[in-house]
Amino acid sequence: MLTRRAVLQGASSIAVARTTWPASAASASATMAAPSEPSSDLLVHSKLPLNAETPIAKLRSAFVTPQAEFYIRDHGTVPTIEEAGYRLTIGGKVRAPIELSLSDLKSRFPERKVMAVMQCAGNRRADMVDVGYVEGDLWGPGAIGNAEWTGVSLADVLSAAGVEDGSGLHVAFSAHDEVVMKDDRFDYGVSIPLEKAMTPDVLLAWAMNGEPLMAEHGFPLRVVVPGYAGTRSPKWLASIMVQDEEADTPIQRKEYRLFPPTTTKETADKDPNVVINDMPLNSAICMPAAGATLRPGTTTIEGYAIGTQNGVAKVEVSYDGGENWHEAAIDKRADTQWAWVFWSVVLDLPAGQHQLAVRSFDEVGGSQPEDIARIWNWKGYLANSWHRVSVSVG
Predict the structure, then answer these.
(1) What 3-state class would DSSP assign to 102?
(2) How confident is the prediction along the chain (394 residues), in pLDDT tens digits per residue?
(3) Distances, alpha carbon 314 to alpha carbons 119, 281, 359, 388, in Å
(4) Max CA-CA distance within the chain?
């Protein structure tokens, strides 16, 4: 199993060195290092960029996911940035552009804590493989975690810069990590609508579960956009611009787009698509594991559910593929719409082969789709059909 490497030592805070990919013109922002390797037993999909998910059983062991066990989704290099030299710039359609150090953020603005799930748009992508080809790492249901984030409200910072009023504006984030995509090389950048940015729970965060951010989770500063796909919460934040259009970056303009099931990779350039922001209602079975052999009799089934837009009102579990349903108990929920809920149910399973399934319902009666084929897309995004796990009893 992989063990964490020590972060690079002795690098100047503003100097740049590319140590992993071929040499390129470097931005004067940070030292770039190979991704550090996770210290826990994360399931590694790729080492460069580092993409690793939390084992599904571990997710259910703690309502607040420990930072060392939190899934990692990188798109390229991992910058090593010294706090003393760090500066964040805010500009664009603001009356008073500003530059802030981490100390400025901590001293000038009220500290805010928000418990929120962070989730990759490709969480549960592997479930779509049986329907057809999907592009990208085959994430199981562990590309998700729940944490308490500490920082300042982005709205407070934008207000201090004199953000202009006006609908239709966007807040663009530029980050220090470099992405290499095919033959293209660029700094990571995305954007969110100004209306979302001005909600108080969107943070510029420097801590996770009361600990400073680890390098792989965005030290010294990242964005946290509760309810949105993780791609809209960039790590290693460099600058913020308020502007008329979405960020003009490949990640924003080409990636993380939801295509209809009729679209293929070959037709994607001309078929309609929508930007992925809000994450849908979803749930997963954490235990028992897929393929487990169980003894006949009572079995505890447990997992998580998340419904950031309209909450989670009810969770149901079936052991016969959806013919009959049993309501699960909500074991734990936080006093915020952005966190997940933990659920469990005890069922008497007879001998034989069983397909466990879970579905959740939100506060306005919405539920998860039954058939993943109806939501299949070639990028494998937003897989939120019933989560199914096959087990043997006997």
Answers:
(1) helix
(2) 232 222 222 222 222 222 333 333 233 345 544 445 555 689 999 998 999 999 999 999 999 999 999 999 999 989 999 999 999 999 999 999 999 999 999 999 999 999 999 999 999 999 999 999 999 999 999 999 999 999 999 999 999 999 988 789 999 999 999 998 777 889 999 999 999 999 999 999 999 999 999 999 999 999 999 999 999 999 999 999 999 999 999 999 989 999 999 998 888 887 888 999 999 999 999 999 999 999 998 999 999 999 988 999 999 999 999 999 999 999 999 999 999 999 999 999 999 999 999 999 999 999 999 999 999 999 999 999 999 999 999 9
(3) 21, 11, 9, 17
(4) 70
User: Is 242 a member of any domain?
Assistant: yes
Is the residue at 117 inside a domain?
yes
Same domain, 218 and 314: no
Residue 351 structural domain: 282-393
First to last CA, the chain: 32
Closest CA to 140 of 270, 364, 339, 291: 291
Residue 320 sits in a domain of what CATH number? 2.60.40.650
Residue 18 lies in a domain: no
For the full predicted model, state whether its pTM sits above 0.85. yes
